[in-house]
Fold this sequence. Notes:
Chain A is of the alpha/beta class. Chain A has seven helices and eleven strands.
Amino acid sequence: xxxxxxxxxxxxxxxxxxxxxxxxxxxxxxxxxxxxxxxxxxxxxxxxxxxxxxxxxxxxxxxxxxxxxxxxxxxxxxxxxxxxxxxxxxxxxxxxxxxxxxxxxxxxxxxxxxxxxxxxxxxxxxxxxxxxxxxxxxxxxxxxxxxxxxxxxxxxxxxxxxxxxxxxxxxxxxxxxxxxxxxxxxxxxxxxxxxxxxxxxxxxxxxxxxxxxxxxxxxxxxxxxxx
Amino acid sequence: xxxxxxxxxxxxxxxxxxxxxxxxxxxxxxxxxxxxxxxxxxxxxxxxxxxxxxxxxxxxxxxxxxxxxxxxxxxxxxxxxxxxxxxxxxxxxxxxxxxxxxxxxxxxxxxxxxxxxxxxxxxxxxxxxxxxxxxxxxxxxxxxxxxxxxxxxxxxxxxxxxxxxxxxxxxxxxxxxxxxxxxxxxxxxxxxxxxxxxxxxxxxxxxxxxxxxxxxxxxxxxxxxxxxxxxxxxxxxxxxxxxxxxxxxxxxxxxxxxxxxxxxxxxxxxxxxxxxxxxxxxxxxxxxxxxxxxxxxxxxxxxxxxx
Lengths: 227, 307
């Protein structure tokens, strides 16, 4: 699903976010990306979603070589990915259901079909009763779950989450992580960046440790245990 | 079968997408009606101004066509005796565009002049007749173009003659009309350019206000086409409103001008019924509004989505 070959990312000004990183994540696998802040976790996720381009190296995602992917095919490529952010990035001028419906709107779903899917996604994250609420009225945990519903509503093959539990208390954090494990159980490949080591070690899933832009080359397979 | 179903589904989704974009842009317009109304008003003024001037110019041109006037051409021949005049007259008579000619010798002209003077003996002081022989010509076709054409033929036929048409003022009016139309075209073009840029700036600033939504949509796989669609509908909406408003302004301007212009025409003895703005003008104004609205939105969204 994800394949990085000797990827280096250097930002303007010379900061090196990633240094010669190689990684392989198979379809259906779930891995945690760990490391201190500034280690390059966000950059790695942004490269995989093609929100950034690498300085060197090759990235293949979902069978697509991102280096040669034409600009006009980028939107189509991104539709196969669900992205969850630490700050959830909900649109405050739209109600919960409209926020979740955004990817379906882009995909051109019919309203009845979209409503069905939005309700299913909200049900999955336990927020069906809040579908008509405004995002501001929700708690931090609820907002994050709306963000997750939006990321999975169009059933992407790959889920990328950048510190999805960064602002949440331990109980909520565990609930959120369990949601990702649920999605993985139905076949969604997931890469979750988190520095909450204590929490993620509990799940016994592979952990990729980034430090100063360096990552030990790894091959993550589905059902892989911690190692 | 499945293919056809899929295509129908795609078509429906596409239509739904457009309907949704139109609904969203209408909702946004209604949510902040102040800015929309100002843009519609500006567009209305800018469309109405050249349309109003065009209406005035068109009426002025109609005036020159309406005047029931028998054009005449006078041919002045210096130092021509009666024989020369006769031969010139017969050559002119042979031209196809001539309806009627009246040759007047220099002596006849002088006699006529003498008769018109209160003190004819004054002319006895002259040693010789200073007047030229004249041939008056009534053209067959009375349009200014035909009269001008005949004048050219006459001048070619008799290069030594001086050809003067009393239809000159019609041509002057037509020339002024043509110049006026050209100036109007340039002014209208500049105004259209100006309003297009204003609409582009409005569309761009609206898109920049939505930058968070756009960023999220992009991450989720939205194409530029999808992102600018509501702006294009907004542009069409503003253009339509502006077109209708300009029609209203034009009609009001026409009502305010009609009576004084018609009474002025009556004083000058001109047969003038002021032409009203018709459905054709309405259609042109609304279509122009739609085109400018769309164009402005397209330019503005291209600029906003690029950065």
